[in-house]
Amino acid sequence: MADIIRINDSSWRIEDGFVRFFLLEGSDTALLVDTGATCPEARQIAETLTDKQIAVLNTHSDPDHVSGNGAFRFFMMHYEDEPYYRLQGGQGMMMPLRDGDVLDLGGRSLQVIHIPGHTPGSVALLDEAAGVLISGDSVQSDNIFMFGPRRDINEFIRSLERLKGLKDKFSVVWPSHGAFPAEPDLIDKLIEGAQQIVDGKVTGTQAEHRDTPVLFYKFPYAGFFCDVK
Ligand SMILES: [Zn+2]
């Protein structure tokens, strides 16, 4: 059973075990950002919190972010994550997101920032007026999955460099996993850690994720699961 926690007058985080998703309300419409890992009732939960019409946007297509999508006819996602979404049997009509898109919920604007790396179509949402960055899995203090064919750690570093360059526009990060909220400085630390992995300056430990051998790199601020080279 998911836990609902109010963040402010018009934002909630819904904690679904190891992952969280968000409901953001504007004066016209509401937006569900992701739909959890084991939460087919995500829409019903959102409907208990707002009487506005609810749209859904996925930060990316990993299965722990889309479990409640089936209750919606339409969903928003960056088009580069659609193939994997369909591969998993993902339903609904996609309204493709592109970098720079602005969603207006009514007195509340969210800018879409394409941050490939964790997945090809990962996005962050910037609510500049509130000073909030919603970061999906790409900025968080838990373990970041960087193994498998869809993921690219060099692209991840470039994306985080871009977020770092936007740090004067937000003062807090709302991540999908790990501690809530996160500090913007976590972005700098993740860049440093990922770069050390790329440069071979740190040693990973052998681990397994669902029968796939991976290398685990643990830093004080987060961890990375990477391909075995
Ligand atoms: Zn996730």
Structure report:
With 229 residues, this protein is an alpha/beta fold. It has one domain (3-199): Metallo-beta-lactamase, Chain A (4-Layer Sandwich), CATH 3.60.15.10. 18% of the residues lie in helices and 36% in strands. The strands form 4 sheets. The chain has a 5-stranded mixed sheet with strand order 1-2-3-4-5, covered by helices on one side. It has a 5-stranded mixed sheet with strand order 8-9-10-11-13, with no helix packed on it. A hairpin with a 4-residue loop joins strand 8 (102-104) and strand 9. The longest helix is centred in the C-terminal third of the chain and has 14 residues, at 185-198. The mean pLDDT is 97. The structure holds zinc ion. Zinc ion (ZN) binds next to loops.
Quick synopsis:
With 229 residues, this protein is of the alpha/beta class. The protein has a single domain (3-199), classed as Metallo-beta-lactamase, Chain A (4-Layer Sandwich). 18% of the residues lie in helices and 36% in strands.
Separate helix tally: 4
CATH topology title: Metallo-beta-lactamase, Chain A
Main pleated sheet = 5 strands, mixed
Content-based structural category: alpha/beta
Radius of gyration: 17 Å
What is the element layout, followed by pairings?
Blueprint (H helix, E strand, L loop, with lengths): L2 E6 L2 E6 L2 E7 L3 E5 L8 H8 L3 E5 L16 E5 L3 H6 L5 E5 L4 E3 L4 E6 L8 E5 L4 E5 L6 E4 L6 H13 L6 E4 L9 H14 L6 E5 L2 E7 L4 E5 L2
Helix pairs in contact: 3-4
Bound molecules: zinc ion (ZN).
